[in-house]
Amino acid sequence: MPSKKSPTTYKLRVIGGSFKRTKLAEVPGDVTRSTKDRVKESLFNMLAPDIPGAHVCDLFAGSGALGIEALSRGALHTTFIERNHQAFSVLRQNIGALPLKGKTTIYRSDALTTLKTFNQGFDVILIDPPYRKGLVDKALTVISENTLLNPQGIIAVLSENNVTLNIQVPLTITKDKNVGITKITLIEWSDDV
Q: 54-70 pLDDT, tens per residue?
């Protein structure tokens, strides 16, 4: 019996920059949770001064919509990490449909394990993991312990708006904002360290 392949749906889109209005494939089913346009717009408005020329890391990348949005808005390079096979396939499809040669690196692996192998920092780290798994706090610990955020860099976390993040020195929250059921939290190195 032939296997049924889920049809590709294009409900996602790039909302700003050079790829504005470009449709992106969405991961079918409930493998990932797509970031709503309103949340994405708020996030990138908050990150506007940090994106141009930045080296970005999109953890738990899913379809790649956040990292691609960063590239559309002038990021120099985005590293995508996604371990789910189905999501990784969609991620590759989305990157392959755009003129991004030399601007992306993609890993099909566990985000936390892969982070520990890096010996360079990033200017912007996007963290949008599956909810209710404690992955944000674990990712922040790995980033801090391995100095993966550049000195003037910024971490952007998307989480449920009722979640309290366990931020520890040398990191500090610089801004947060609720957008519907999502909380956007910006984190930087603390000036006190």
A: 999 999 999 999 999 99
